[in-house]
């Protein structure tokens, strides 16, 4: 069952998570403690005559099919939970097959059978239809999988065509190791999470029988900070370094992130409406946790320098304008790396390093961990503690930089 039920006025909720599903699988909550499963079909539009209006009107043509399958609304025993799992699995298979029949009836074709599907094509189609903001990570995950097939002798024969049933647990284990060889720590885990998302989608839509990723994970020591940190001296060096034809918005946005700890996905969407000029505050919802955490809202105090960096809206009608109109992440990253190199800073700096640098520098200046956690919008102190380990390392490096005593 859906982990979070959004009941509608008729006591029903939709189980299908994919907006492209047609029909959609749903359930009606009954008074006897059960839920009756159904399929909702969208059949386009039809014209009907409206007597009150005295003319034809267009409305959506929908149909509901009850499956005579039932779930326990609140399963209490292992048997009831297993019954729910089996029933829901059967309903999803029926939904997929009915969707195929609808395609054949309306469009004259069916999707290729599982044995003939090229998973690489399926992955590309998934990307083409993907609308969420982490699409860039989905694209990178696809690229990594293609690279893995090309560079691994054992699996090179699949570099152009691989059926879903040819993706085995052994292959996924090798792929997870490959990811860790290409990306450090959180990067590998994040890419693997996106890859698993596509695999799960394939399983739920009948393209794969079993999930080859089950039981295989990439573990990362979350207490360790693996990104490069810009010291306050390096930040000042960066601020004082200018170059011809630089994009001023990229420069302003990165400096703002260094002093406020914002992610790229958040700073690029800031508008003047997010700024409370009279109280010198910035209020915004974090894209990463919006709708998933009660702590997605962040409030950051602003000083005069940051307000100057933000500027003022052109007029009263410009409050919804972007503060930092930025190009794509790739262009921003290229510009940032050229800027860092010109400043003579020999570090591999990405945009996210600004967030880490902000946290480490204010902790180093005496801010307490709860304050830092609030400014970063973390849902728990555990997420912020990794910066304390970075502070300890900086202190150790400072001591180690002293000349040895000749005693």
TrEMBL record:
<protein>
    <recommendedName>
        <fullName>Tyr recombinase domain-containing protein</fullName>
    </recommendedName>
</protein>
<feature type="domain" description="Tyr recombinase">
    <location>
        <begin position="225"/>
        <end position="400"/>
    </location>
</feature>
<dbReference type="InterPro" id="IPR011010">
    <property type="entry name" value="DNA_brk_join_enz"/>
</dbReference>
<dbReference type="InterPro" id="IPR002104">
    <property type="entry name" value="Integrase_catalytic"/>
</dbReference>
<dbReference type="InterPro" id="IPR010998">
    <property type="entry name" value="Integrase_recombinase_N"/>
</dbReference>
<keyword id="KW-0233">DNA recombination</keyword>
<dbReference type="GO" id="GO:0003677">
    <property type="term" value="F:DNA binding"/>
</dbReference>
<dbReference type="GO" id="GO:0015074">
    <property type="term" value="P:DNA integration"/>
</dbReference>
<dbReference type="InterPro" id="IPR025269">
    <property type="entry name" value="SAM-like_dom"/>
</dbReference>
<dbReference type="Pfam" id="PF13102">
    <property type="entry name" value="Phage_int_SAM_5"/>
</dbReference>
<comment type="similarity">
    <text>Belongs to the 'phage' integrase family.</text>
</comment>
<dbReference type="GO" id="GO:0006310">
    <property type="term" value="P:DNA recombination"/>
</dbReference>
<keyword id="KW-0238">DNA-binding</keyword>
<dbReference type="InterPro" id="IPR013762">
    <property type="entry name" value="Integrase-like_cat_sf"/>
</dbReference>
<dbReference type="InterPro" id="IPR050090">
    <property type="entry name" value="Tyrosine_recombinase_XerCD"/>
</dbReference>
<dbReference type="Pfam" id="PF00589">
    <property type="entry name" value="Phage_integrase"/>
</dbReference>
